[in-house]
Amino acid sequence: MRVLITRPRDDAELLARALAGHGIRSLIAPMLEIVFLAGPPVALDGVQALLATSANGVRAFARRETHRDLPVYAVGPATAEEARRAGFSRVHVAGGDVVSLAARVSAELDPEAGTLVHMAGTAVAGDLAGALDAAGYTVRREILYQARRARGLPPEAIATLSAGTIDGVVLYSARTARTFADLVDRAGLAPALAGVIAFCLSPAVADAAAGLRCARMVVAAAPRSDVLVDVIVAAALGRADPHFVSPRRPFPC
Fold first, then answer.
1. Interval 140-199: pLDDT, tens
2. What's the rounded Cα separation, in Å, for the pair 135 and 117?
3. CA–CA separation, 89 and 86 (whole Å)
4. pTM higher than 0.85 for the full model?
5. Domain encompassing residue 115
6. Which residues contact 116 (CB under 8 A, 6 or more apart)?
7. pLDDT at site 240
8. Which residue from 77, 79, 31 is spatially nearest to 57, judged by alpha carbons?
9. Last residue of a domain, one of 89, 124, 148
């Protein structure tokens, strides 16, 4: 199996290495370019913990700030692993989405103990701050990076899709899925997806990819990278996987 990975390059390379360990080849075609924003160190006086909803938020923080003594509450295992690589030792892992992250923070932290800093980009998925505000926490969103939309598909992606040598496309976010669908249409490659499986991290991603005319669309049972990798490996081996769930409604094929 060969899959097209649409994640930003740093994350895509990590995923490609994980898939290569299972004999799955990858072509990286980022739909978003991560731009780390320049600025002063992050103000941390009175802060009790850091919130991370993406690995890029951790990377951006690490470029601005040398302190690693605060606990990090990460949205999922991949983001938690990036926090550990950056030098944080107290890393708490949620279930893969902002709902589970807000629930873990609420269960473990005292709203009166200090501010929570969300290491974020210019665009965020979900309303983490709103959920925590409602529970009495003070959340400060630090905008540390920007995800810029790709202007077109890379030439190698166009060539491989045209040749029919891509078996799957991996979609991790609704924004990435919409961007990929738009760029495929612009390139006139919609018919080339007829034999391609769309591997989606969550139902929200699958909804955003609903316009893709793929052979089929599968959704991970939990919004975690390790679960989606299991789904892709199962597809490569031609077997069902317990981590797979069907989309909530039919998709074009």
1. 999 999 999 999 999 999 999 999 999 999 999 999 999 999 999 999 999 999 999 999
2. 15
3. 9
4. no
5. 34-148
6. 47, 48, 49, 50, 51, 105, 109, 132, 137, 138, 139, 140
7. 55
8. 79
9. 148
Asked whether residue 196 falls in the same domain as residue 104, the answer is no
- Asked whether residue 251 is assigned to any structural domain, the reply reads no
The pLDDT value given to residue 248: 38
Q: What size, in residues, is the chain?
A: 253
Please give the span between the terminal C-alpha atoms of the chain, in angstroms, as a whole number.
Answer: 20
Which residues on neighbouring strands pair with residue 93, listed in sequence order? 74
Say how many CA atoms lie within 13 Å of 53 toward its Cβ. Answer: 27
**139-149 vs 32-36, strand pairing mode:** antiparallel
Using the structure block, give the residue that is written with the tokens 């769309």. Answer: 198
Mean pLDDT of all residues in 38-62: 96
The pLDDT confidence band at residue 123, using thresholds 50, 70 and 90, is confident
60-67, long-range: CB < 8 A, 24+ apart? 60/36, 60/119, 60/121, 60/144, 60/145, 61/86, 61/119, 61/142, 61/144, 62/86, 62/87, 63/36, 63/144, 64/39, 64/40, 64/144, 65/41, 66/41
Read off the pLDDT of residues 66-75 as tens digits, 9 standing for 90 and up: 999 999 999 9
- CA torsion through residues 64, 147, 203, 24, sign: negative
* Complete DSSP assignment for 123-190: S-SS-HHHHHHHTT--EEEEEEEEEEEPSS--HHHHHHHHHT---EEEE-SHHHHHHHHHHHHHTT-G
**Residue 76 domain flag:** yes
